[in-house]
Automatic annotation (TrEMBL):
Keyword RNA-binding recorded: no
Transmembrane segments: 7-27, 33-52
Protein known as: DUF2854 domain-containing protein
Organism of this sequence: Stenomitos frigidus ULC18
Alphabetical UniProt keywords: Membrane, Transmembrane, Transmembrane helix
Signal peptide: none
Alphabetical list of InterPro entries matching this protein: DUF2854
Length: 182
């Protein structure tokens, strides 16, 4: 629940309300207690909310609902790395340019900020009886051939216990399937 809540929006809302109450107390009612609440709590929360909102990275959506059979496979076969990736990309993040940007940089798939592929979707599926986490990237400046060359490196980077499969997913999009290999 908290993973799906934007701390920036929460800070802006609470800080905005407290700041308005503080100004109202100062100018209208001359209530010193409410005035202090607005100035000492409201304004810092408002500024903190603005800072978080400016550096916010929204969660990546699930491309399709996960089937019950795949959830059962996840419980049995998913590696710690697959679970960590799924949890990280489906929650709000702060202070990052893009989801998995440092991983892509280490893999040699993001030489510059402009060429960095963007994670646009995640799905959990079954591949030949194995749990699979599919990451869909929009990659307009990285050719599919480069992704396919890095397939073994991707598997070892996200391994052990993971096989990687790279396939086209449409115009300028690439699917990276991380397949549990029990």
């Amino acid at each position: 629940m908290l993973r799906q809540t934007s701390l920036g929006t929460l800070g802006l809302s609470v800080g905005g309300i407290l700041t308005v109450v503080g100004f109202w107390a100062y100018f209208i009612t001359d209530n010193a207690t409410l005035n202090l609440v607005g100035f000492f709590y409201g304004i810092p929360l408002l500024l903190g909310g603005l800072a978080l909102k400016a550096s916010e990275l929204k969660p990546v959506p699930l491309m399709q609902p996960t089937a019950e059979s795949v959830l059962a496979l996840r419980e049995q076969q998913a590696t710690a790395t697959q679970n960590q990736i799924r949890q990280d990309v489906t929650r709000y993040r702060y202070g990052q340019r893009a989801h998995l940007d440092s991983s892509l940089e280490r893999l040699g798939l993001s030489p510059t900020d402009e060429e960095c592929p963007v994670l646009v979707g995640v799905q959990e599926v079954e591949t030949a009886g194995a749990y699979t986490l599919v990451l869909e990237f929009e990659s307009p400046l990285m050719p599919l051939e480069l992704w396919q060359e890095k397939q073994d490196k991707i598997a070892s980077f996200f391994g052990p216990g993971v096989k990687a499969s790279v396939s086209p997913a449409g115009d300028r999009r690439v699917d990276v399937a991380l397949i549990a290999a029990p």
